Each structure stands twice: as C-alpha cells, then as structure tokens.
Amino acid sequence: MPRTLRPGQRSELYVVDIATGDRRLVHSSSTLLFEAPNWTPDGQLIVNGDGRLFRLGTGELEEIELGGVPAINNDHVVSPDGTTVYVSADDGHLYAVPLSGGPGRRVTNDRGPGFHHYLHGVSPDGKTLAYIGLEQVDARRIANVWTIPAAGGADVQVTNDEHADDGSEYSPDGKWIYFNSERASTEPGHAQLFRISVSTGEVEQLTFDERVNWFPHPAPDGSVIAYVSFPSGTLGHPADVDDVRLRLLSPGGEIRELGTLFGGQGTMNVPSWSPDSLSFAYVAYPV
C-alpha cells in the first residue's frame, strides 16, 4: 500500500544550493505524500506518490501517464537522454516508461515470486540499470546489487553475500557503483557507504562514522556525494525519523552537513542532483 500522511503532516519538496547551503521550498502538500525527487536533463523535478508518478509543472504536480504499469514505489530514475523514466513497480519488476507518453515496457526477468527488483541507478551511457535484488530465502531477506541491460537481457549479480546492501548508483564515469551496506558492521543498524568497481569487483568503504548512512548520490560532475544519515542504531531506512541529516562527502573523505530534517524514507532515495551539479532536491515530512 502507498504511504500516506499522518494527521497534521506535510510533504515539502526543497532544493538546496550546495555552495551556500540555502534551501528553497518548491512544493508542499497536506494531502499527498510524495517522495524521491529526480531531475530531468532539462531541469524538471519528478516525484512519486500514491503509486503514481508526477512532474512539477508550473507550481503544481502533473501526473505522468505510466502506460499500463502497475502501481509504483519510490525507486525510479530518469535516462540520461531524458526520454525514459525507469520505475520499480509493486509487482516486484522494473519498467521503462516514455516521458512523452506511451505504453510501459517490462525490463526485468522473472526470478521467482520471492525476488523483487528495486531500481536506483542508470549507467551514464543509458545502457545498464543498477538495482537491488531482494530475495526471500527461508526466513532471511537477502539484498544484493545487480545490473540488467536497460533494453532487457541477462541479469548480472554484482555483490553476492548476505549483508544488507541498498541504493546502488553509478558514478558519472560509469566505473563504479556506489551503495550502502551493513558489511562493515558486527550488528545490524550501522550501514556505511561503499563503492564497487564495475571491472574488478574491488570494494572500497567511504564512510566510517557512528551514524547510519544511506543512499549515496554522486553529483553529475563527480565533485561530491550527497547522502542521508540516520541516528546510530537505525535499522533500515524508516520513515518519520527525527535528526535525519543531509550530508556531502568529498573525494578526500571530508563530510559537510547541510541540514537536519524530520523524514528518512522518501527523502532522497534516488538520484536527486540538478543537471549542473549545483543543487539537489529532497523531501521533508514535518508534522
């Protein structure tokens, strides 16, 4: 079921300037819980809500026709050329939807009823999707990084372990896939940021602090990584958490905080940078 707002709660879409830290409210709603902003190459913002997809038009949200695709969740990305949005549907599959309208196309293969695909990234050339494959094995939920051709084809498993991996997203040069994982923790509730080489499978850890770090989003120019940081001990990426922090990570490992909000799930699940790398979008859920 799609998430809904609590009594007295709002969805607030902001754009933050990374040079100054100033944030600008661009849309708010007391009726629709919207999530996970993307940018199109021409500078439009896209969000999901109530199983549907919207673009921010002249001050209002305008629904994007999904072309027969089932209800979607908050994992969606826009192709580099701006013609297609790839979405994760509640039936567990990924679909390609023309932004100009038209029928949706299922991308993913049938890997059994216990396997679900959650999309987070598309390669810079637009040819490959990076997703999290979540499968139920006995009583365990196992999440690994996978890729699949955007045109459809064979899946490739990138990580193969029982650590909780999520947020798989390509670097601007296509050489790395960034993700968050529990692999450096001795107990659940301490996810950190990592990246894995597409060519060699080498894994590098990027953050090492006491907070729980999720959803690394490299800027299009590769200058910095934006991510959300939860309080220590947080399991998964829950909604309606106090003290969720927006952070930037430099190539040298320096961390800069841009603000604190009430939110978490839906705040910044997917690529949310502006095309010029000068700002990124996020959603807060104040009560």
Automatic annotation (TrEMBL):
Protein origin, superkingdom: Bacteria
A Pfam family the protein falls into: PD40
Q: Transmembrane region positions?
A: none
- What this protein is called in its record is Biopolymer transporter Tol
Q: Which InterPro entries match?
A: 6-blade_b-propeller_TolB-like, WD40
The UniProt entry's sequence similarity note says: Belongs to the TolB family.
Q: What is the phylogenetic placement of the source species in the record?
A: Bacteria, Bacillati, Actinomycetota, Actinomycetes, Propionibacteriales
